[in-house]
Amino acid sequence: MIRSLIKLAFLFPVFVFSQEVKPNIVFLLVDDVGWGDFGCYGANFNETPNIDKLSSQGMLFTNGYAACTVCSPSRAAILTGKYPARTHLTDWIDGHPYPHAKLKVPDWTMKMNHDEVLLPEALKEGGYNTVFLGKWHLMPIGQEDFESHYPTNHGFDINIAGREWGAPKGRGKYFSPFDMPNLDNGKKDDFLTDKLTDAAVTILDTINKEKPFLLYFSYYTIHGPIMAPKALISKYEEKAKTFKNTKNEYLNPARAGMVEKLDNSVGVLMQKLENLGIADNTIVILTGDNGGNYDETTNGLKGYKGFSHEGGTREPFLVKWPNKVKAGAVCNEKVIGTDFYPTILDMAGLKLKPKQHIDGLSIMPLLTGKKTKLKRDKLYWHYPHYHRTKPYGAIRNGDWKLIEFFEDGKLELYNLKTDPNETLNISESNPNKVKYLLKDLKKWRKSVGAQMMTPNPNYNAELADKRAKKKK
């Protein structure tokens, strides 16, 4: 099935856009991965030798961020180069209903609009073949135009497994049968991460060699349901018995098994690029869509997926670019998901689209070592929704981070240099800093047309409190 798809997708004549050989791009997007989940970011319980090797071959960013604390907005931000506040795609599709909450959620966008020129579309214009594998979660569930929003309707030549799901919901979940588009169900006990990796390897074997490619591998893992092969669960159960947990790591054997399967996948892909002789002309990027799930110790930071603090948005952020990025480099500059779009175009030698990726900056000067700072001091977040956190907005300016909670106007201020775990709210002792940052945050919201919440006529404090406790 996969080979037939590849033949159909790439049967068209090849056009030569440039004499220069453009780099291939492998973009690896991991779901619900915490900032501290990999060895290269400090993990000792999880075993990630292949990801750690990838890190040693390229640049590791210590201040890499997702554009939102949940998945769909972050994924859209990568593909559009725009903040979720600007596109109004601000929650996971189709979001949480909080009918009795104090504030009413705005009428936000629950799909990827066709008027956006997505990253794969821009690369196709530049002569690239484009392939999508894995989690999509950018489709309008239950709407009439549902069928027109698969990855193949948004710039990808091939879609394998991408559909409306935010997590595996097939009959076997992470185990066969998978019930995903263009992915056969395989044999009993086949694991989804392995199956998608096999599909990626097949594509790398047969993809048109005369054109560069984007392989956009969007893993379903490490999203729940948390499940792994029994042998791996047993391995980490045994390890947990004698493990000295000096860093307060999350000792979940099944989740550690999922991380190992992810790491194995990365190793297989990197070896395949070597075997095909294209590793030296292939950029590899690995990041996540939001913080780890279930416990803040999956991050090594305060909070986790759905929360307003660093654990909800700080991400692993790795870039390997042979002969361009110094092996083993570390960068402390602040970067965010919207930056991938202009950066990838820049790396490919293609013309930037500033009107499209308006909120992203090319970080190529950081990657090549020409600069250590970007012409940008501030990053912003806007989440007018209820989740594990109450609705909030946030700004990071240098080492300072201000969080504004919309329900009651509560403010939290942290200096991330001296207090990276956000343990001490110093807003009351720094009124001038709070005033400056809050004014900037409000000005930014107005400039991007951010949707704001309104008083909820159906507010019921007792029911709202019960709902909030249940979701936590």
Automatic annotation (TrEMBL):
CDD domains tied to this protein: ARS_like (cd16144)
Key words, A-Z: Calcium, Hydrolase, Metal-binding, Signal
Gene3D superfamilies: 3.30.1120.10, Alkaline Phosphatase, subunit A (3.40.720.10)
Domain of life: Bacteria
Family recorded in the similarity comment: Belongs to the sulfatase family.
Keyword Amino-acid biosynthesis on entry: no
Species of provenance: Postechiella marina
Cofactor(s) needed: Ca(2+)
Protein name as annotated: Sulfatase
Pfam families, per the entry: Sulfatase (PF00884)
Domain Sulfatase N-terminal residues, every copy: 23-349
